[in-house]
UniProtKB/TrEMBL annotation:
<keyword id="KW-0472">Membrane</keyword>
<comment type="pathway">
    <text>Amino-acid biosynthesis; L-proline biosynthesis; L-proline from L-glutamate 5-semialdehyde: step 1/1.</text>
</comment>
<keyword id="KW-1133">Transmembrane helix</keyword>
<comment type="similarity">
    <text>Belongs to the pyrroline-5-carboxylate reductase family.</text>
</comment>
<keyword id="KW-0028">Amino-acid biosynthesis</keyword>
<dbReference type="InterPro" id="IPR000304">
    <property type="entry name" value="Pyrroline-COOH_reductase"/>
</dbReference>
<keyword id="KW-0812">Transmembrane</keyword>
<dbReference type="InterPro" id="IPR029036">
    <property type="entry name" value="P5CR_dimer"/>
</dbReference>
<keyword id="KW-0560">Oxidoreductase</keyword>
<dbReference type="Pfam" id="PF03807">
    <property type="entry name" value="F420_oxidored"/>
</dbReference>
<comment type="function">
    <text>Catalyzes the reduction of 1-pyrroline-5-carboxylate (PCA) to L-proline.</text>
</comment>
<feature type="transmembrane region" description="Helical">
    <location>
        <begin position="7"/>
        <end position="27"/>
    </location>
</feature>
<protein>
    <recommendedName>
        <fullName>Pyrroline-5-carboxylate reductase</fullName>
        <ecNumber>1.5.1.2</ecNumber>
    </recommendedName>
</protein>
<dbReference type="GO" id="GO:0004735">
    <property type="term" value="F:pyrroline-5-carboxylate reductase activity"/>
</dbReference>
<feature type="domain" description="Pyrroline-5-carboxylate reductase dimerisation">
    <location>
        <begin position="164"/>
        <end position="269"/>
    </location>
</feature>
<keyword id="KW-0963">Cytoplasm</keyword>
<dbReference type="InterPro" id="IPR053790">
    <property type="entry name" value="P5CR-like_CS"/>
</dbReference>
Length: 273
């Protein structure tokens, strides 16, 4: 892939995960500058991966080919207003990983001709298992689209969505989704311990069952998830008994409501920020 000069504005959980994945996959660390007000996160990335560290968003963005906006949505307007005053974005590609900040809003903040791609990644990018959804307005060039795809492919898999609304659906299905699985695993670990397993064994059992299940899904892309579930479920057996509890409580409806809440919140944020 091309090695353009990248400046990350923000050094938190998500930027850190992408940077870790990028450098581990061979992206040159000296082409990545990480900006944040405090040294805590950006210097930790510098020490671990050899990236450059700066507290100066403007100077770093000025010399970059690609600016990745990786601050919290509620800070985006302030950060962009400051950048807009001193940075010429006409020769730069801007990648936003923020939830709930629309392309329209970025045009208002940084200029109508902005070359912008919205990316919705997730934290498994840290270990090369990320999933990113990408959206670009029509005028973004094929080259910029390709670069954005390649960048995120370095830390996982990518898919493009045709409308910007698709980004909010990606949030519900992938961006926020690691937390759903963590919550489920936490609940399992807690109950395994309550039943008498040691903390270490409870963690190991849940962790291995989850990664084993995910590996089976990945290894059998043509097999419906329902078949994989049925393969575990002997009629009248233990799994059947457990799944009955989930079904009685309508887990499917709970999941649907949770994903709808994620989309609704993203839409609300688009109005707020
Ligand atoms: N976490 C996730 O799983 C995902 C997050 N996202 C998106 O990523 C974005 C960042 O989220 P996340 O990484 O979780 O947030 P964090 O709170 O972990 O990180 C925010 C970062 O922004 C930095 N920051 C704050 N103010 C400024 C500023 N003025 N200039 C430059 N940097 C600044 C902070 O600096 P300091 O280091 O000094 O505290 C910190 O490094 C959000 O917009 C979110 O929607 C998208 C997909 C998944
Ligand atoms: O919770 C959030 O708003 C961000 C976006 C997706 C994951 N974390």
């Amino acid at each position: 892939m091309q090695h353009r000069k990248i400046c990350f504005i923000g050094a938190g959980n998500m930027a850190g995960a992408i940077i870790a994945g990028l450098v581990t996959s061979g992206y040159p660390a000296d082409k990545i500058t990480v900006c944040a007000p405090s040294g805590k996160n950006r210097d930790a990335l510098k020490d671990k991966y050899g990236t450059l560290s700066s507290s100066d968003n403007i100077a770093s963005a000025q010399t970059a080919d690609v600016v990745v906006l990786a601050v919290k949505p509620q800070l985006m307007a302030d950060v962009c207003s400051e950048l807009q005053q001193q940075v010429d974005f006409s020769d730069k590609l801007v990648l936003s990983i923020a939830a709930g900040v629309s392309v329209e809003r970025f045009y208002a903040l940084l200029g109508d001709n902005l070359r912008i791609v919205r990316i919705m990644p997730n934290t498994p990018s840290l270990v090369g298992k990320g999933m990113s959804g990408l959206f670009a307005p029509q005028q973004v060039s094929e080259q910029d689209r390709e670069f954005s795809s390649e960048l995120m492919t370095a830390v996982g898999k990518v898919c493009w969505v045709e409308t910007e609304a698709g980004i909010n659906q990606v949030i519900a299905a992938a961006g926020s989704a690691p937390a759903y699985f963590f919550l489920f695993m936490e609940a399992m670990q807690q109950e395994a311990q309550r039943q008498g397993l040691s903390a270490d064994n409870a963690r190991l059992l849940v962790q291995q069952a989850a990664s084993g299940a995910a590996a089976l899904v990945e290894a059998n892309p043509e097999t419906p998830l329902s078949t994989l579930r049925e393969n575990v479920t002997s009629k009248g057996g233990t799994t059947f008994a457990a799944l009955n509890v989930f079904n009685e409580r309508d887990l499917t409806a709970i999941v649907a409501q949770a994903m709808q809440a994620a989309v609704a919140r993203a839409e609300e944020m688009e109005k707020q920020f």
